[in-house]
Fold this sequence. Notes:
alpha+beta
Amino acid sequence: MSLLTIYANNQPEHGESYRDFSSIEQQLKAIGVQFERWQADCNLTPDASQDDILAAYQEPIERLKTQYGFKSVDIINLNADHPEKTTLRQKFLAEHIHSDFEVRFFIDGCGLFSLHVGDKVYAVLCEKGDLISVPANTKHWFDMGENPSFKCIRLFTTTEGWVADFTDNDIAKAFPTLDQTVAALP
């Protein structure tokens, strides 16, 4: 189940949590973040090809492409056996911004997006079926956990793909990781 925890940016040990979709969507909308739940048009097997996955979600992908002018779409698939998992995790964990939206739809697995907006941190546990669109120039970081297990559709308005400008703020180190967040769930 998806989870949103809102923290004061100087109090990572105390946050207010939301579990129901409507509350999460409402809280994120207030800071300009799009949060949706998608369903596939067909059943997908764990080894479904990129083409099969994109076809299963063609309607919502086309809607977003029209709405925002996305020019490229791909799929990222990371698991515990990925040879660069530690390097990729450390890169994504550093607070950064993008000049483009960061749009992810979780086909499978989970990840933790933490958005640093004003004096708050919005930690969003995204799971299978969740779409999150982080607006351009929003400070954030992403944790895929020590042993990642996720598959996401990514949409970009440029052909360069994922390009980050790092803030050099080490705030991410103070807040719960994906693994800590999942371990604390009832």
